[in-house]
Write a structure and sequence with these properties.
Blueprint (H helix, E strand, L loop, with lengths): L1 H38 L3 E8 L4 E8 L3 E4 L2 E10 L8 E9 L11 E6 L13 E8 L1
Antiparallel strand pairs: 1-2, 1-7, 3-4, 4-5, 5-6
Amino acid sequence: MKLIKNIKIGRTNFLKLFIIVIFIFYSSNINSLENSESLEGNFIEIKILDKVSSKNNVLKIKIGDEKKFKNLLIKSLKCKNSEFDDDPEITAYLQVKDLTNKNNNEVFIFNDWTFSSSPTIKPFDHPVYDIWLTKCY
């Protein structure tokens, strides 16, 4: 009789432990999902260098919106901050059109991901302007 009672207590303790483990696993997954969503931003900030006048301009663009800067039409589709605090990385997907270019064969002069720490990985190549990403928020 005492053995059966100990087995029942053992099953209940195992069940409680199992429920606690499931709860911890579930709550840690929710936290990681919330953190990954907070890494994506709604706005980007880029710096634009006019090579002719040597002037820097800061431009803030809402994700999904187009913004005109002189002869350029710039649109950001997505941006994300890195998960690492020791070496932060900001990435954004940009589309840039040159409005002076009347050739319809070339839709975008830049249509790719750009990286804040290494803008030369996917360089924006334009004779007058340089663009680099500074913030995603």
